[in-house]
């Protein structure tokens, strides 16, 4: 494949870009805080001074940015992606955003002749490092086919979900379920502890039953120790709950469980836990 541009070297972007480099791709990176690109240079990346400079250099550019405001800013602001996008170039936004944001970006890119794919991912820091993400793509099918070699490095499975918005919506549904589960899990650990049970035994019991899952298994032991090293920052989980609830509003879907989970994540943010892992919502139960 041609050289790949990568915009946004946060927790996920860094792991994904390093993974592409490790598999022999040439990668040019940009990050708002440019100094964060230094580590990528040690892995063999080149650096672009602006999103526009990266687009100019690369046939395909991936973005992995925190939220809708960031995703829009990197495309539409001065020196943004839009300034250099043109026919023959592809823009792939893998950030978790809402369908409307994705549509705005898609329209802008395609109106200048470029092709666009939204491709949010399921899976966190470790799956990103290990190339085990689940990619939820939608938009330009030809572009999807062209970037399969890169997706095969980044993920264990790539879905093509059809029209723009479907990838964004699928991602929000998945994260809405995950955020609600994390709250139920937190309540369960506290309930076990306060009622005289060993929470570690609870983890063992859960792991052998019908609701065993990697999230409980991976995060449970650290949560019991009140440790929340950021893999998926809580502020992003709360953003996803907010966007999923808005999708529920649009479709008249009552979501009382997700709404309560969102309140807990908001509470956690108000306690200053936004940059901790989203499992830090556990702290809201003891504060
Ligand atoms: N972490 C995870 O487990 C997962 C995260 N996601 C999603 O992936 C995306 C990235 O997540 P993650 O890597 O964890 O987040 P981080 O907070 O670690 O990184 C966010 C990135 O966005 C950049 N950014 C933020 N605001 C702006 C802005 N206004 N203009 C330009 N760049 C900006 C940051 O730049 P700077 O360094 O300058 O702050 C940084 O590169 C999010 O949409 C998240 O929901 C999806 C799956 C898993
Ligand atoms: O958006 C973040 C998802 C985290 C995960 O799937 O483990």
Automatic annotation (TrEMBL):
One Pfam family, short name: NAD_binding_2
Sequence similarity: Belongs to the HIBADH-related family. NP60 subfamily.
Function statement: Catalyzes the NADPH-dependent reduction of glyoxylate to glycolate as well as succinic semialdehyde (SSA) to gamma-hydroxybutyrate in vitro. May function in redox homeostasis and play a role in oxidative stress tolerance by detoxifying glyoxylate and SSA generated in glycolate metabolism and GABA metabolism, respectively.
Cellular component annotations (GO), alphabetically ordered: cytosol
Name of the protein described by the UniProt record: Glyoxylate/succinic semialdehyde reductase 1
S-adenosyl-L-methionine recorded as keyword: no
Catalytic activity, as annotated: glycolate + NADP(+) = glyoxylate + NADPH + H(+); 4-hydroxybutanoate + NADP(+) = succinate semialdehyde + NADPH + H(+)
């Amino acid at each position: 494949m041609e050289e790949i541009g990568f915009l946004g070297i946060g927790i996920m972007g860094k792991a994904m870009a390093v993974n592409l480099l490790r598999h022999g791709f040439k990668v040019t990176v940009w990050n708002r805080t440019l100094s964060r690109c230094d580590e990528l240079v040690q892995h063999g990346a080149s650096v672009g001074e602006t999103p526009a400079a990266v687009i100019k250099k690369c046939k395909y550019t991936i973005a992995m940015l925190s939220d809708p405001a960031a995703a829009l800013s990197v495309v539409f602001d001065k020196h943004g992606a839009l300034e250099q996008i043109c026919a023959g170039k592809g823009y792939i936004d893998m950030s978790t955003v809402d369908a409307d944001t994705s549509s705005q970006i898609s329209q802008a890119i395609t109106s200048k002749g470029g092709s666009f794919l939204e491709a949010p991912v399921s899976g966190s820091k470790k799956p990103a490092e290990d190339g085990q993400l689940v990619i939820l793509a939608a938009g330009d099918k030809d572009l999807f086919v062209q970037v399969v070699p890169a997706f095969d490095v980044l993920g264990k499975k790539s879905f093509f979900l059809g029209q723009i918005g479907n990838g964004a919506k699928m991602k929000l549904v998945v994260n809405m379920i995950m955020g609600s589960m994390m709250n139920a899990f937190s309540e369960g650990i506290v309930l076990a502890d306060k009622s005289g049970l060993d929470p570690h035994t609870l983890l063992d019991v859960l792991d052998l039953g019908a609701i065993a899952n990697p999230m409980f298994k991976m995060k449970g032991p650290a949560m019991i120790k009140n440790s929340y090293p950021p893999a998926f920052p809580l502020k992003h989980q709360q953003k996803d709950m907010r966007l999923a609830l808005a999708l529920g509003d649009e479709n008249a879907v009552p979501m009382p469980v997700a709404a309560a989970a969102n309140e807990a994540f908001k509470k956690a943010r108000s306690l200053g836990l936004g940059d901790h892992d989203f499992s830090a919502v556990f702290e809201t139960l003891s504060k």
